[in-house]
Amino acid sequence: MSPFGWSRVRVLALVSLVALSGCARQPGTPTAAPAVRRPDEILEDLQMTETSSGSRSWVLHARKAYVYDAENRVDVEVAAVDFYDDTGKQYSHLTCDRGSLNQSSNDMRAEGHVEIRTTSGMHVESELLCYWNGPQRITSDRFVKVTDAHGSVLSGTGFESDVRVEHYRVGKVDATLRHPGGEGSDR
Fold first, then answer.
1. Is-contact 3 11, C-beta < 8 A?
2. CATH number at residue 49
3. Is 105 part of any domain?
4. CA 171, CA 61: separation in Å to the nearest integer?
5. Domain containing residue 67
6. Which is deepest, 11, 113, 165, 168, by most CB within 10 Å?
7. Cβ neighbours of residue 90 under 8 Å, at least 6 residues apart?
8. 3 belongs to a structural domain
9. Is residue 187 helix, strand or coil?
10. What is the DSSP pairing of strand 123-132 with strand 55-68?
């Protein structure tokens, strides 16, 4: 091949290389944003009830709900849940800023300013509480404050309880105990 032929091959190779490198993603070049999943339904003033053996277990009220059918999930805003015993008597009331319900398991996650008030006088506050329907447990890995009917306060990070908040554990505890009829407190 003549020197002129090699030059032509080199020029064509160089032009091809430059053209191909133009197709490669350059640093800082924006890519398509992932698709935002839109709810299948948006509902206002939602009320959902779970029953067991003909008795209601809980009733969920939400100002607004977003239903995601593929995930079996309902996200709610400004919600309240009333829990009932086997006889149909309400034993606690939960409120939260927002939450999520797994429609397959009926497990719930409450977030924002979350409070549970029981008919026995227990008051639980946290920024996150999870309700596990199968084992009938409430848990959190966040800061939780529990106040009993006498004003005793137990707080800490981490929480596990039965749904009636009769038997519970708080991790990394800070406590203020008030005795019925007493003025003092112990730390």
1. no
2. 2.60.450.10
3. yes
4. 30
5. 41-180
6. 165
7. 82, 83, 84, 119
8. no
9. coil
10. unpaired
Structure tokens at 28: 């800082």
**What is the rounded average pLDDT of the residues 120-128?**
97
pLDDT in tens, 67-110: 999 999 999 999 999 999 988 899 999 999 999 999 999 999 99
Considering the domain boundaries, does residue 14 fall inside one? no
Q: What's at 104, amino acid-wise?
A: S
Distance CA 114, CA 96 (A): 4
The count of structural domains within the chain is 1
Let me know if residue 6 belongs to a domain. Answer: no
Tell me if residue 27 falls in helix, strand or coil: coil
Phi and psi at residue 2, in whole multiples of 5°? -75, 160
For residue 21, what is the enclosing H or E element? helix 3-21
Task: Report which listed range, 17-26, 82-91, 109-118, 171-180, is most confident.
Answer: 109-118
* CB contact at 8 A, 60 and 76: yes
